Amino acid sequence: MPGKTAEEMALDQKEISVAEFFEKNRHLLGFDNPAKALITVVKEGVDNSLDACEEAGKLPYLNVNIDEVGSNKYEITLKDNGPGIVKEQMPSIFGKLLYGSKFHSRKQSRGQQGIGISASVLYSQLTTGRPAIITSRTDMDSPPKQFKLKIDTIKNEPEILKEKELEDDFQPGTEIKVVVEGKYIQRYHSVDEYLKQTAIANPYARIQYSNPEGEDYDFERAAEKLPPEPKEIKPHPYGVELGVLGRMLKNTDSNKVLSFLQNEFTRIGRTSAEEICRLAEVDPDEKPENLNHSEQEGLLDAMQKVKIQRPPTDCLSPIGAKLIKNGLGKEIDAEFITSSSRDPEVYRGNPFQVEVGIAYGGELEEMESDKVKVMRYANKVPLLYQSSSCAITKALENTDWKRYGLEQPGSNGTPKGPAVIFVHLCSTWVPFTSESKESIARYPKIVKEIKLALQECARDLKRHLSRKQKGKKEKRRKKIFSNYMPLVLENAVELAEEGEELTIDPIMQRVIDEELVEKVEEAEEVEEGDVND
After folding, report:
1. What range does the domain containing 250 cover?
2. CA 121 to chain centre
3. pTM for this predicted structure
4. Each residue of 265-302: pLDDT tens digit?
């Protein structure tokens, strides 16, 4: 049988839309098993809502409801008090993959790729065939808008099935309702646990939640003030790659290389720009788009050699040591809580910051597992899966916890003890290992910072455990003293009656002698009993 010709093979080639790709590869987005899929849908909706509320300067108030509507089928409804969405953008935000406002923005945010919430809509129509129902209102002066939609996966475009305006008392904000195939569980990997951990890392948010079992949770706020809104920054020259530099040179509005360097990058002033041009042997007045490949390589090399300040860190919005303590204390009844927020660092030109908290004892003494519970976060979002490949796990296991009072099997591993270890990494661009955003890549710089933060809190824990041990010894000492006190008084009276000088030595000697006689008599009785037997 003759094979295909090049012309025949050419007819088979066609463009694949991103929606069509993820339709066949949904596991890449976190929909690889029913239990995880349920969490992923809730997670994407919560991330969007929290980001929208914070950006609008509103204390987040979220209502999450999950109802079982069939065998392994669940209706998920999520409503927020955010700024709402204008009518023209609603279909694209929920019905088009890779559509969003944060992909090109260099500042900390939960969502980055513009895939999450639209992927949840895609998963809904794939597994149940049901459309998503989106309702949003921007203010009380305009009516709520509602869309019923699916995604045309071939075109990666929203398919609007129904559109209408509502006349009810729907409060400003956005609501999404989807029906998905899933599995509800109540263990560590559950929606319940995800929302509890979200409440800890976002103590200024209130989350009301009703699960399929009919149980209601109200995660109250522990703070009445939002953290500072992160500011957008430009790329740092130490983090740019040659292909990106070439694109920037081609698309810039600057007319000269000198102004291009100053306008398109952070921390490059006129002096630094002139030094870069000199080292690269590039004319500062040359038009950026005219630089050939060799000149672009020289420019990039020179940018790495010139000493340039680190990027600004106001693009980050850390939780803060105080709020980490408040968040842990709000949800965990522990005897001791400590927290630490490290100074920002940089990897590949991207600012990042590590924060750690440790809760010990109290209700944690009743934990089913003897291993500590580890809560991993990236940009305030809990990471429940893929822990073994995560930078946080590597740093945790490479810390010598025995030095700090916790048991640890072997030379490394997860420590044991009644404790919760909270680790948060925030960055303008978190290096996730996959599109499902569940594990942080093990960059040596990141692992090192996490380990240093863990050690800071571990030293506080060691001091607490030392004080606790000292307190136990003191309590035991007092108990012994109180047990001997009657004997001391009795013998002091006898010595006084005999005319002895009342000093501590003869009194204690008589007490000790009496104790020894009593122990000898007890031993003789036991021995006699053994012989009789």
Report:
1. 237-305
2. 24
3. 0.81
4. 999 999 999 999 999 999 999 999 999 999 999 999 99
